[in-house]
Amino acid sequence: MLANAKGKVIRKSLDFARLNSDSAIKDLDLLYQGKGWALTRPLSTALQPEDPDVSYSDSSRVSKMQTIKCVVVGDGAVGKTCLLISYTTNKFPSEYVPTVFDNYAVTVMIGGEPYTLGLFDTAGQEDYDRLRPLSYPQTDVFLVCFSVVSPSSFENVREKWVPEISHHCPRTPFLLVGTQVDLRDDSNTVEKLAKNKQRPLSPESGDKLARDLRAVKYVECSALTQRGLKNVFDEAILAALEPPETKPKKRCILL
């Protein structure tokens, strides 16, 4: 947690209330204080479906919500889809099915107002290199993912993914996300990497790459155990809603 004496962001543990098995509210309650944002602990009382502020059955209300568009990119099989499914449904997929394109949505409360957090999944395979950028327009923040047990996916962050999003959306912020951290200490995984004279990537490696590529920051998580999962999206929202005193937020326009 950071002090906010000079308007800096305060980070606390945030709870979320699930309305039903298919939808959830992630309550962030971002409050503007002085010259910065303060991230505060939400009210302990969970919002209910009949709440006048958030109603999934009230299409006119939902259509008026402001939106935050978050696009997830990275090599195939690094866990992008699992990341999104685990976050939005609190369930881990039982099998791997390569994604073409898909999207998910949750509702977040920001400064007492409901926002739609749109989460866009993309295919990492080369076959979709020309199609994938069609999902980039109006993006507020990117999550650039790699697996901490896949050195090649780590290298492709520098060689492919950041150049791609920087070409199409040069002013849109992005976070570097290390996935599958539950496998970092898995003996079978470590043994397989060792056979190729490789080893799992350390948090320090992620931090350094994030600095080198000018990412907002490096975060890591496990979709299986949900360790660090919520923090990934909290940080993404903060990056999308950066204080106006820093620099104006630019949404992506396809170039």
UniProtKB/TrEMBL annotation:
The molecular function terms in GO held by this entry are: G protein activity; GTP binding; protein kinase binding
Its Gene Ontology cellular component terms are:
cytoplasm; midbody; plasma membrane
Q: Which UniProt keywords apply?
A: Cell membrane, GTP-binding, Lipoprotein, Membrane, Methylation, Nucleotide-binding, Prenylation
Q: Which InterPro entries match?
A: Cdc42, P-loop_NTPase, Small_GTP-bd, Small_GTPase, Small_GTPase_Rho
Q: Does the keyword Membrane apply?
A: yes
CDD domains membership: Cdc42 (cd01874)
Which SMART domains is this protein grouped with?
RAB, RAS, RHO
The lineage's top-level taxon is Eukaryota
Entry annotated with the keyword Phosphoprotein: no
Q: What does this protein do?
A: Plasma membrane-associated small GTPase which cycles between an active GTP-bound and an inactive GDP-bound state.
The protein depicted here goes by the name: Cell division control protein 42 homolog
Q: Which organism is it from?
A: Ameiurus melas (Black bullhead)
